[in-house]
């Protein structure tokens, strides 16, 4: 036997170019920590290791540990057999996940999120956040600003943990935190399955499933009623069904419950009260397009509604009502862009919420590449009533030739903000005076946002325009999700515009240059003392013309509105 | 289906799958593009918005790179609205760039397109904070202050190379590429293929060699580009040398048929060995009385050698060989050629030995790699080459990779396997040692017991036979010997084989059914199959498996032994094998000899020569006294290498022609300084049977000469009437005696860079897939050859309870002569390690990184332990590139009876803390 006497082996070269590092102890990259793998397995429990369930898995880790530790993410990647990078890009896209690398300090156990949406800003969110930050032990509680949490009627609003506190004061918030009142309860007023059925609920679905109704006539009914997509785009619902039915199956259906447009809270309002009216509409729609599965995507901010839907969907499954299209609840994770329908599909597939290019449209190639029917919550809410009461009933509820009833989310300087069921075609002034008890004391109407952050800002002199799809576009505005934020003479429209542009920057997915870079540059230009109108104009043009999706295309709207209607503020 | 639409006022047509951008470019307009890379493998993503066009009737502009045209569409790429949007997009991007004079790549597409559109001044405010540079990787500089988030790097990493390291993380203006979990590149799982660097349009990712270390300023500009082929593995990637100031500044992949512009870490970053200060630049003659041994510093050979003139050295080299020939007969001399040289060199080496010494004692490292595969293939299907290119994995429904670790050893081939899985193909990876392909990509990972190949494959075939999954028609019309095989397989039930294989019977059945019932299935194998004393049997099983299911001869099917060296296919084809002449013509066949004797004008010995390991034994026996070695390193690569080194020391006369003073050259009497691959002209043949043209980018250093010229001079001095003036003349002679090269001329290769053989006509492409109709055997039928169970030669026992297996690593080529002198490769894998399962290390009480001693009956080495869960608990893996812990001091020289290949993949060993 011979040995390799080291003296015999020559020093292998002495070239200075050769960096001498130690031998590699392990294969490349972060080693798998067996203990972390066991922890991840325990936390995931029965969650299937399916790629589309990655976000659900990340929620399990975030909820269970309070953050996403790198060692757990590595183990999760191993468990899902996907690259670490794929886990990281998804986890880092959504703002409700906290990635903590080796050696970094995990976030404190409790997070207070102070809404800085436009209505809450007007209600003093900035001061509130500063007071809270000063009032907490930073090692026990962190205070973050959050984009609109959908409680604009109760501005300023705060989430303590998941617990919503409306008309928040530092005292009330800190009291909730101290009391451990940090979990949003299931909405008490919600009509549960039995009560809903007792009132004739799910009879329509039964008729559909039993063959007593046919899909074509349902499509006709919806078309006659003039039901339009109430997520913001206003696409005729009946036509959408017909289009989706025209593409070869298998098909899928999704529900967009990612209500994130600042100023909008109507879907939450309805879901908290009458979830089954919506669920029945969804199951009927799924039946009508022969969808084999029904995905309900709900924004993460609506923890109470989520708990409610979990309970009621379980009841539906127990009652066997979703056998034709099993319902899957999916949870967002803090990303406004996932309200864009194709971004939502990406998110349901467990990916980052990047809007897709069109064509193809999702009706042809949607979720998992299949023809997909997607609806907003409110749209589906009307289906049962329209069928039961007839299309003329619904169509007749509008005014000035407009069809139907709308759920306006009204916030800002009105006496009684809230969700207002009002006729399509109503004017802002009527809405304020007839539904909201008029302007708040001491406030005079300066202008209003007809459609949340995206819909532009109209001046008081345009408060008599009918609010409906297609009516405001000539004035470079749109009604969108019918989120009306009322501004008064005591508001600084320039500050409002800056708030909205900041929001868009914060929520841009970052995919395309005009939006990713444009929102950042627009904020910088607005924050500068003097607005450079020429540069702003160029920015507006490239963002409108060249952004992939509506976020970037609409992001310059607030600025354009200020320039058009409040030119004195721009100077 | 053709789509007709209007582009900039002209009626144009789009083919299926074309975008507006494609049509515009075909029509002569290159619309600006940054995130779009028209090279093969890259999906358009439409995110940068630099290519916007106006489509009549649409509310917003469209990204031309991703938008398919529709019939009747009216597209305007030059409208005011479109050009304004494009210019503004460039302005936005430029606003966030480092100042132009500080650009990381002054020649980047970003700046080029900015210039073209007159965008120089950034009017918009810049970004708030630029990411800091990441210089943690020796090969690549990451400067994300130039990043435009175009995702090309992520597509390069995840979709083209499928190395899965880069993600696009965060959101909004924080959106940017990250490595793994946002780790520094240098500590990530990055395998440094450099595809991201090649794809990056801004200089955010650059080869570290062309940016200033301090300022990070650089450019991809080059004085000259020379197109050639990669010198490393058998994949045969086409490359471009980018030259600056007479040196290789960096290397890029070219769109060759095997690599479609992809490269691996060696092919991209492994070229500075040519400029190593250890290059041999003058001929050397051993000093009187200098002892032979591994005792020379390759950086300073003058302790044992003296400088000589070429005249002197060639006289000494040839004179020594002639003297021994005259005294002891030609058979006292043997020659080793190299699979790393060109076809022309290989041909000359075999001819030199056969012509000057009158016998066939000439071999090369094919003996150590696929000799058993070739033996089985010649026997079974009448041809030793692959039946289909590895790229056909993309056409297969089922891919079987057995005894191969392509992500390390054939990295670019592996990209096709990984892509195929992404597209839905099933991938079965069978290996006793786990690997990346098995862990991450395989749909069916089969980590079986070492040495159980025949048991596993016979059990699979048993399932296919008993479950009636045999392709009866194919067997009846294309094969012979099936009944004998079927009878033989009867005993090999999966249940009976399960324990031996370490794989349960159900899994064996599942995989057998999967393969047999696939519409198209293809098998790849490597040295894990061939380097066994039962290597030929292993390959026989794979051949039978493919034949009985008809999985050969159609696109997406076939048998593909992944060839190791860049020219092992070509060197074998050229006759650098002791039993055969060029094109595998048997020396024992009188008709063959007559044909070659007529062509060559000298008598060919009818006796097969000795193989690599037999030559070493013959030296010990005193039968061989002199050796000519061109570019081989048996002092590292032979099994039981102490035995081989002793043989080399015993030689009366040893001539070594190489670019470094290799371990073998340390035993030489005369050392002839030769040329590195980037310094010479010649053709090489890759694993896909693609003959490719290699072109020189550099002159050999000092007095070093092209190998071709050295060979011709040696031949002349040995009295041969050789008057070759250029490799093309050698190639012409080869083409005249080798039917495989029919219709492939030097001129054609110069023009087309690559031609696949067999090739039916001078102006037709070669056949990528062969044997659809018949096999090149008597009667046109393939032969089933049953294989029985045979244990490896040396199995574990109480004294040596573990199994040692050896092989390569991604960064190091063969015996490390080149790669350990390549700065980046050496930095990435600087020292020898032995890989063991972490549980084994825990049992030994050895922490990862601590020294251990690996011992076998032949020797012992001391090296650092590497913790790697891919190893089974009773296995140890040692790469053989490290002289300071040479794995081949340990390996078993027992050889396969047919292929004469040593059992590098299995011997008994013990491991102790050192």
Describe what this molecule looks like in 3D.
The complex is a heterodimer of chains A (571) and B (914). Chain A has 571 residues and is of the alpha/beta class. Chain A has 25 helices and 16 strands. The termini of chain A are far apart. Chain B is 30% helix and 18% strand. Chain B is globular and about 85 Å long. Chain B is α/β, with parallel strands linked by helices and 914 residues long. Chain B has 30 helices and 39 strands. The interface between A and B is large, with 79 and 102 residues. Strand 1 of chain A pairs parallel with strand 35 (859-867) of chain B, so a sheet runs across the interface.
Largest sheet: number of strands, sense, barrel closure of chain B = 7 strands, mixed
Query: Strand portion of chain B, in percent?
Result: 15-25%
Q: Report the count of strand segments of chain A.
A: 16
Helix/sheet category of chain B:
alpha/beta
Quickly count the helices of chain B: 30
- Kindly state the number of beta strands of chain B: 39
What's the gist of this structure?
Chain A has 571 residues and is an alpha/beta fold. Helix content of chain A is 41%, strand content 14%.
Which tags fit this structure?
heterodimer, A: 571 residues, alpha/beta, five-stranded mixed sheet, four-stranded mixed sheet, 25 helices, globular, B: 914 residues, six-stranded mixed sheet, 30 helices, 39 strands, 30% helix
Element layout with pairings:
The complex is a heterodimer of chains A (571) and B (914).
Chain A: E1 2-3, H1 34-44, H2 54-65, E2 68-69, H3 70-80, H4 84-93, E3 99-100, E4 110-115, H5 118-122, H6 125-135, E5 141-146, E6 158-160, E7 163-165, H7 170-178, H8 193-198, H9 203-209, H10 215-225, H11 237-245, E8 251-257, H12 266-273, H13 275-288, E9 291-298, H14 303-318, E10 327-331, H15 341-348, E11 372-376, H16 377-381, H17 383-389, H18 391-395, E12 405-412, E13 418-423, H19 428-435, E14 445-453, E15 458-459, E16 483-488, H20 493-507, H21 513-527, H22 533-546, H23 550-554, H24 557-565, H25 567-570
Parallel strand pairs in A: 2-3, 4-5, 8-9, 8-11, 9-10, 12-16
Antiparallel strand pairs in A: 4-6, 6-7, 12-13, 14-15, 14-16
Helix pairs in contact in A: 1-3, 3-4, 9-13, 10-11, 20-21, 21-22, 22-24
Chain B: E1 3-7, E2 10-14, H1 20-26, E3 52-55, E4 62-63, E5 74-76, H2 80-95, H3 109-116, E6 140-142, H4 152-160, E7 166-169, E8 176-179, H5 195-199, E9 205-207, E10 224-229, E11 238-244, E12 247-253, H6 265-269, E13 284-286, E14 305-307, H7 310-328, E15 333-336, H8 343-357, E16 362-363, H9 366-369, H10 371-381, E17 398-402, H11 406-409, H12 411-422, E18 426-430, H13 436-441, E19 444-446, H14 453-466, H15 472-478, E20 479-480, H16 482-489, H17 494-501, H18 505-517, E21 521-525, H19 527-530, H20 535-548, E22 558-561, H21 568-573, E23 580-581, E24 585-586, H22 590-600, H23 612-621, E25 626-630, H24 634-637, H25 641-650, E26 653-658, E27 670-673, E28 682-685, E29 690-694, H26 707-717, H27 727-737, H28 746-752, E30 754-756, E31 782-783, E32 802-807, H29 823-828, E33 833-836, H30 838-844, E34 851-855, E35 859-867, E36 875-879, E37 892-895, E38 902-903, E39 907-913
Parallel strand pairs in B: 1-5, 15-16, 15-25, 17-18, 17-21, 18-19, 20-31, 21-22, 25-26, 26-27, 32-36, 33-35
Antiparallel strand pairs in B: 1-2, 3-4, 3-5, 6-9, 7-8, 10-11, 11-12, 13-14, 13-27, 23-24, 28-29, 29-30, 32-39, 34-35, 34-39, 37-38
Helix pairs in contact in B: 2-3, 7-26, 8-26, 8-27, 10-20, 14-17, 14-18, 14-20, 17-18, 23-25
